[in-house]
Fold this sequence. Notes:
The chain is α+β, with helices and mostly antiparallel strands. The protein folds into 2 domains: 28 residues; 113 residues, no CATH class. It is 27% helix and 23% strand.
Amino acid sequence: MRAQPLRWIVLTALAATAVLLWGCASNRSSPASQGAAVAANLGSTGRSAAPLPGQPGCFRLSDFDGSWTVLNDSELIVYAPLYSQPYLIKLFAPVPTLRFRERLGFADTGHTGMICNDTMDTLVVPRWEPERVPIVAVRKLTESEARHLLAENHIRPPRGPQPVRGNQPPGQ
Length: 172
């Protein structure tokens, strides 16, 4: 009778070891792809776990002129190049004072000059702790997707053909 529980414990331990070893072997990849896996897992959180609009995308840091609109504590729309293309940025963690920021910046982890989806690049938020907040998704939006996100977050779209430079206050 004692052999049965002991056999169960040994088999369970062997199975757990096999799973751990398989997991470690499958994670032997570059830091960027490991960041991509984390971003993929985290990118589905928030906003009722609905998929994010748009397509995975990238923009050049040199094209970002400081135009953005905060949607909520963990999402914003940036425009690059020069008001022509909106991108949804989803952050790893919320920044409750994001709406009141006058300056934001980006840091690319791969030093490519690009902020891309699934690379764990960061949003630099001056006077916030931590100052660098990982980005879990960069989505290239169509104009209609950007307008829908603005409306969904109770933000009036810009009146002219160009968004406001810097952060657009809610309801303006």
